[in-house]
Write a structure and sequence with these properties.
The chain is mainly alpha-helical. It has a domain of 80 residues. The protein is 53% helix and 6% strand. A two-stranded antiparallel sheet has the order 1-2. A two-stranded antiparallel ribbon has the order 3-4. Keywords: Cell projection, Cilium, Flagellum. Pfam families: FliX (PF10768). It comes from Brevundimonas subvibrioides.
Length: 141
């Protein structure tokens, strides 16, 4: 066994396996008659700071921001559709208005695409107009 540095003994030199009856092969014992030493585990390297990994997990990519923005816009359109159906059926639509208001208050992720940003701004404006119209109806009643 040869010590190669501060990490302990180096790997055992591969010997020619001795053949036992029945085709079973075993490694030859070392010169001292003992068994071969276990391989030492390699020291951990590469990961020095867990906080940097946690910070990387918190970074949101442009694709994820875009996906969240589209999901928010679709949700607002769904709430507007619910409100429309409630008003057409003669209901006040208070529950739909509350859901619409809650959805509108959600933070909209910024997107670099000006076309998408324009469409999302139009959806937000339409939702705000519907909420303002509902407030006028409430104050008139």
């Amino acid at each position: 066994m040869k010590v190669t540095g501060p990490y302990g003994p180096g790997p055992a030199t591969p010997g020619r396996p001795a053949r036992a009856s029945g085709g079973f092969a075993v490694g030859q014992a070392s010169a001292t008659g003992g068994t071969a030493p276990a391989q030492s585990a390699a020291p951990a390297s590469g990961v020095s700071d867990v906080s940097s990994l946690m910070a990387l997990q918190g970074v949101e990519s442009a694709t994820e921001r875009r996906r969240r923005a589209i999901r928010r816009g679709g949700g607002l359109l769904d709430r507007l559709e619910e409100l429309k159906l409630a008003l057409l059926s003669g209901e006040t639509g208070e529950a739909s208005l509350e859901r619409l208001s809650r959805s509108l208050r959600e933070e909209r992720p910024e997107d670099a695409d000006p076309v998408l940003t324009g469409v999302l701004e139009q959806i937000d404006l339409r939702a705000a107009v519907e909420l303002a119209k509902a407030e006028v109806r409430r104050s008139a009643a």
